[in-house]
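ok so I'm stuck.
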Amino acid sequence: MGVINTTPDSFSDGGINFESDIAISNGLRMLDDDADILDVGGESTRPGSLPVDIEEELRRTIPVISGICSQKRDALISIDTHRKVVAEAALEAGAIIINDVSGFRDDPELALLARDSGAFLVVMHMLGAPRTMQTEIHYDSFPGDIYTFFQERIVELERIGVAPEKIIIDPGIGFGKTFDQNLILINRLNEFLKLGKPLLMGPSRKAFIGKIIGEPEASKRDTATMAAISMSICRGASIVRAHDVKSTVQVSRVTDAIIREKIEL
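replied:
not stuck anymore, here's the structure
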């Protein structure tokens, strides 16, 4: 899953995709580099970030999705949003996945839209909100509390009629987790396989990686990110969300080949 942040304040890329034409071009390049999915988001979720209004989120994301889909009709597009209005417009523009950092809790209508449209859902765990998630970190059990969170969300989503095979879960690395907890989350990711849903992991360029290698600049963490990507796959991730698609594809293929002890060429 290639990341396209159409925000001016992204932690990872300094806003390089803020202009729609550039975001479309970069998205097409990611597809050429063999990204399977493109995740388009118009609201920053970095620690301390504040929400944007709906009109601005629509302005940032929908032209990008439309532009990519008009040139690559088979592109698989995910909209990174917690708002029904934005998700609805994105689905109409060609998206087929709704990726909600709130775990489909912020907007009660969003899960119903996913159900009725047949879209896939990425249910992410986040402690609190982006503004506070890294300042008020407390768990009674880790990663047990996150496991319980997913159990409850899966039951609720399936209760309202969401197809079980449409649900993907994302433990939300970096979203309300300490440095040590991020490492634990990757190392114990296989425990979430018992939930019976595909796992998505997005460690790309995160601060815990920068701390390990002593690199304060997010855009210079791609090589180190590949270690976290590979370990996530080894521990059961089905989807990895990354900024450097070309390197991630190569690392994913080699990791898959080793795990399965074969490769189809």
